[in-house]
Design a protein that fits this description.
By secondary structure, this protein is an alpha+beta fold. It has two domains: 28-68, no CATH class; 71-174, no CATH class. The chain has helices spanning 7-10, 14-18, 28-51, 54-63, 131-137; strands spanning 71-81, 86-104, 111-121, 126-130, 139-151, 154-161, 167-171. It has a seven-stranded antiparallel sheet, with helices on one face. It is elongated. It starts with 6 loop residues before the first helix and ends in a 5-residue tail after the last strand. The model has no long low-confidence stretch (mean pLDDT 83).
Length: 176
Amino acid sequence: MNEKIKKEDIIPTPGELKKSEPKTTISESLVKELIKKLDEQGKQINMLEAIADRKALAAYNARHKKVIELTVSIRAMDIFDEKLKETKQKVILAWRNVKNEVYQDPTTQRWREDQQIEVFFEDGTKKTMPLLSFYRNYKVISCKKVGQIEDKGQISLKLVRSDTGKELIIGSVFVN
């Protein structure tokens, strides 16, 4: 017992006086069991939120003043740029019908449909394409809703792209 006792071991520092929390020792197996239960509960909560009726969930959150982050989906399409000679992904802001004809093919006697739409992109360009090719080729991009703009009865959403963080304003009709 020839150990020297240091002054730091006897006199507490001011920080130690403030941290006079009681310390408890628990076994490692109990900690692992608690972590496992928390993980299971987290998975169950995520599952319940995923299968929940959105309208009922919104009503519950409104009653309990829980603010949830709204996520919406927008569309993008890979378009070949003639000037740059490369394919570029462009976000679709809107589209409209240009042509919608239904006719009976005289040779096969089958009914045919010719639907053309005009697609407007975020860079100000537009392209006319068949409706079927539009539905086959667009990709979905997830965005966070950060605001809402109402103008003359039209509702537009202010969104932030999840992948790039770029802010967009898109009509509510053209999301999800």
